[in-house]
Write a structure and sequence with these properties.
The protein is of the alpha/beta class. The protein has a domain of 264 residues: 3-Layer(aba) Sandwich (Rossmann fold), CATH 3.40.50.1110. The strands form 3 sheets. The chain has a 5-stranded parallel β-sheet, with helices on both faces. The chain has a two-stranded antiparallel ribbon with strand order 1-2. A two-stranded antiparallel ribbon has the order 3-4. Helix 1 crosses helix 7, helix 3 packs across helix 14 and helix 4 packs parallel to helix 9. The radius of gyration is 23 Å and the shape is globular.
Length: 413
């Protein structure tokens, strides 16, 4: 039987693609360090860590870190949901700053802070619930769906400036993530029970979902190719228009003459979209306080400064690369001042690290990873030193913690 030229050509093409993919995979594994993928879709918070995932977080030429997720999908040691008798727990909410993929786990703020607090308070256990890409809204959901299972006595949220845009579907707009819903006046919308409302979301990674999901987990070549695509707004946009990617090209981090990306948080007169994002954020802070209190836990906030807020030369460099920013009134202290005033008005304890980080910037090793803007090991160490006494003071006494827990269980029955 003679094979048609068309069929033969198809077979040759398929074999060629397979050999090309295999060659790419071998080349990447041999010569190009690539991050493993540590996250999977979660029906409650959008994306969450893959339980027991082992791998490496890589930003070529900047860091290459071993990463292990625990059995609950967090970068932390193992924690049972039920507290041991006499233990007081502090749950840490946050994003990539406390997930801390840039440094070894033992050099990150969670274990360092726990060790320092234990010098003052016995039987304290810190639980890291931080995951990259989270904002205040998803941190609320993380606490509600997962964090409260650990029976925390204190909940501490690490707040970073980009959390404001991360809370806005209007600014961020990823279809596989939940966002707080604004009411007609721009404030946080609530349901009939007074709970925050969130937008609908679904696992819609792409039309090639099953194939892409498999390759994302198992193929280093795919991960390298995807990194290249993600770094190119033109290619990203083309694939979205062709329907091969369901995530629209993110505009918030692509500054232009009229849009300063997440640097918009320093604008003295925010645009309507950012004013709404601020309002949603403030509403979520109060909602998280109330959620913690409903289970007998205290709540506090740590205001984490960005690298350009701490190092003037970094800010000056940014201004030269963002058109129009020099002509608009901006203030790098605005987020910490505004949030500090809001938190104080709502009886939420907070710690702002800005002034202390600025004071140490010239005398300490670099506090932020150059080319990444997250904390170095020195930054994590400084944060733990600054926070230890203040967090320890917020942990309820053993008797008070037991009493509050009993009352909350009675209310929630």
């Amino acid at each position: 039987m003679r094979i048609s030229k068309t069929l033969l050509g198809l077979v040759v093409a398929v074999v060629g693609v397979l050999f090309g993919a295999l060659a790419l995979e071998m080349a990447v594994r041999a010569a190009v360090p690539v991050s493993d993928f540590f996250y999977e879709f979660d029906p409650y918070v959008g994306l969450k860590g893959v339980p027991n995932k082992h791998g490496r977080a890589v930003k070529r030429g900047i860091f290459d870190t071993a990463v292990v997720m625990n059995s609950h999908g967090f970068r932390d040691r193992e924690h049972a949901y039920q507290k041991a008798p006499g233990t007081r727990r502090v749950a840490l909410l946050g994003d990539s700053f406390i997930e801390a993929l840039q440094v070894p786990l033992e050099s990150s703020v969670t274990p360092l802070l726990e060790a320092k607090i234990r010098e003052r308070v016995a039987g304290v256990e810190l639980i890291n619930l931080g995951l990259s890409g989270f904002g205040t809204g998803r941190e609320y959901l993380m606490l509600r769906e997962y964090g409260l299972r650990y029976e925390p006595d204190l909940v501490v949220m690490f707040f970073v400036g980009n959390d404001i845009s991360d809370n806005s579907r209007r600014l961020h707009g990823k279809p596989f993530l939940p966002y707080p819903v604004p009411a007609p006046d721009g404030s946080l919308a609530r349901d009939a029970n007074g709970q925050p409302r969130f937008s609908a979301f679904a696992d819609t990674t792409s039309r090639l979902g099953p194939v892409a999901s498999y390759l994302r987990v198992h193929s280093k070549g795919y991960r390298a190719l995807r990194e290249a695509i993600d770094s190119s707004s033109a290619v990203n946009g083309l694939l979205y228009r062709l329907g091969l990617m369901s995530t629209p090209p993110e505009q918030i981090n692509r500054p232009s003459a009229s849009n300063f990306g997440f640097y918009e948080i320093y604008r003295l007169n925010p645009t309507p979209a950012w004013a709404e994002a601020w309002s949603l954020t403030e509403g979520m802070l109060v909602a998280t306080r109330d959620l913690a209190a409903s289970r007998g836990a205290h709540f506090a906030v740590v205001l984490v400064p960005s690298a350009w807020e701490v190092y003037p030369d970094v800010w000056e460099k940014i201004k030269t690369t963002v058109p129009g920013m020099a002509d608009v009134p901006m203030d790098l202290t605005l987020p910490s001042r505004r949030l500090g005033k809001f938190l104080a008005a709502h009886d939420i304890p907070y710690v702002s690290l800005l002034d202390d980080f600025r004071a140490r910037a010239g005398t300490s090793p670099a506090l932020y990873v150059v080319g990444d803007a997250h904390w170095t090991a020195a930054g994590h160490r400084l944060a733990s030193e600054l926070l230890a006494d203040r967090v320890a003071d917020l942990i309820p006494s053993a008797g008070a913690a037991a009493e509050r827990a009993a009352k909350s269980k009675g209310v929630n029955r």
